[in-house]
Amino acid sequence: MTAVTPDIATARQHSLGDLPRRTAQRFPDKPAIIDGDTSFTFAELDAVVDRAAAAIATAGLAPGDKLALLCHNSWQYAVLVFATARVGVVLVPINFMLGADEVAFILDHSEARAFVVEDALLDVATRALAGLDLPTRAVVRLAGGDVPDGWLDAQTWFDHDGTPPAVLVGDDDPVRLMYTSGTESRPKGALLSSRSLMWQYVSCALDGDYRPDDVELHTLPLYHCAQLDVFLGPDVWLGTTSVILPGPDPVAILRAIQEHRVTKFFAPPTVWIGLLRSPAFDDADLSSLEKGYYGASPMPVEVLKEIQQRLPDVRLWNFYGQTEMSPLATALGPDEQLSHAGSAGRASLNVETRIVDPAGSSVDPLPAGEVGEIVHRSPHATLGYFKDEAKTAEAFAHGWFHSGDLGYLDEGGRLYVVDRKKDMIKTGGENVASREVEEAVYTMPGVAEVAVFGVSHPRWVEAVVAVVVPKPGAELEPDAVIAHSRSVLAGYKTPKYVVVTDALPKNPSGKILKRQLRDEHAAIAASDS
């Protein structure tokens, strides 16, 4: 067998940091990034990535070092994603909604040597740094604020005059450390390599019909792997134009689609619902929009039907996955949206998926229709959890990645996600999938959003609770919601308690925070004791 010499390895390198340069060679003058009044062609994007990569190396960061990033969506965020990878530095994106103690945990656990922070988030960052010694600290001045003592102006990185060192980044060298929201008291850090991410980019592009002539709108947080790695990363790789907004405001989204003639847009169901309910929806020119994507949580079937009715020319995809899969695992295409509504689709191009015994005793495939744990084999998969050998071994038991989700495959190999293990409600000795109850409640006229979860009950161990948001102008009574649910569900699946509210708590990625709802309504069954 021929030995792979350093020259051969260098010639064969294809890492995340190489993508802007290679795309710039194909489409040098094409718009790459548009962020408000700032825009870059692909040649300009590659040049600013090079300058930032050189500055990062000059700051003393070596391959394998961690750079933590706490920032809202911006062109600077996109540049740092590729600049760190170009010199082998591991990027650690941090959720900008976290408190100081949570940020401090990630900084400490990740062993970060540098911290790049948006000026508007300096207060949280400063409190998080108390007691921690990070040698490099830089401020991204999105709001034009001053640079405080002890911090660098990150703009000097983007203006740096220098050339980055040549760094050989191997296929399985970590380039990203993504902390999962998880169910435990502390998040886990999933290590992703260029191999993980770029095989995932191939799957996304082929399964999602991505094209270089698309114009994509990015509104969900880039700290989340869905927006960052299912969409922005593949867009830079292919040569797609990316329009970046700071957040998913419905009016701003509709305006941007119209202004930039956006062809491609991803949002979780909650954001799609927000667009449909916006007073600006019917007046917006959305004729350029050709492709829509949803994920992060299941799309209610009634909402899916409404999208197809009001945007009949938009083809829809459902993408399912998780951080540890970089994150795409399965996809449901446009031709099966209604015929197989509620399905997460088939395994994506570079993924093998099966259903196994949820007890973990075997990874032999279960028969079609039988509910078990969803497991995958794929180059998309994480390298493991940073500094957590036990959790890594548990996740990769028997040579498959264990997702923690429950589901089943139909005869055609389509996946149906029943629930997270933690969201399965066990009431009176019976299992109730919260998603099934939510779908039933959504069929009631006047329901805009619903979240279903279990709370402790003195008799039934757990009781089913539904928190419901009415559509504008609609009135919902708890008893009416319970009656409607009882008409379409078995008695034990019917919500025992219904709460009508103005809005559901969500994280910046649009996921409904069921953990918060459980805490808020934990005592709702106390009167039945």
Average pLDDT taken over every residue: 93
Rg calc: 23 Å
Q: Assign the CATH architecture of one domain.
A: 3-Layer(aba) Sandwich
Structural category: alpha/beta
Characterize the main sheet: 9 strands, mixed
Q: What is the helix tally?
A: 16
Instruction: Show unreliable segments.
Output: none
Tell me the fraction of residues in β-strands, as a range. 15-25%
Helix content: 25-40%
* Number of strand segments: 26
Strand order of the largest sheet: 2-1-11-10-12-13-14-15-16
Would you state the CATH class of one domain?
Alpha Beta
Shape: globular
CATH fold description of one domain: Rossmann fold
Query: How widely separated are the two ends?
Result: 72 Å
Write the layout of secondary structure elements.
Blueprint: H1 6-12, H2 19-26, E1 31-35, E2 38-41, H3 42-58, E3 66-70, H4 75-86, E4 90-93, H5 100-110, E5 114-118, H6 122-129, E6 136-140, E7 152-153, H7 155-158, E8 174-179, E9 189-193, H8 194-208, E10 215-218, H9 225-238, E11 241-244, H10 250-260, E12 264-266, H11 269-277, E13 291-294, H12 301-310, E14 315-321, E15 328-332, E16 346-347, E17 352-356, E18 372-377, E19 384-385, H13 389-395, E20 401-409, E21 415-420, E22 424-427, E23 430-433, H14 434-442, E24 447-457, E25 461-470, H15 478-488, E26 497-500, H16 514-520
Helix pairs in contact: 2-3, 3-4, 5-6, 8-9, 11-12
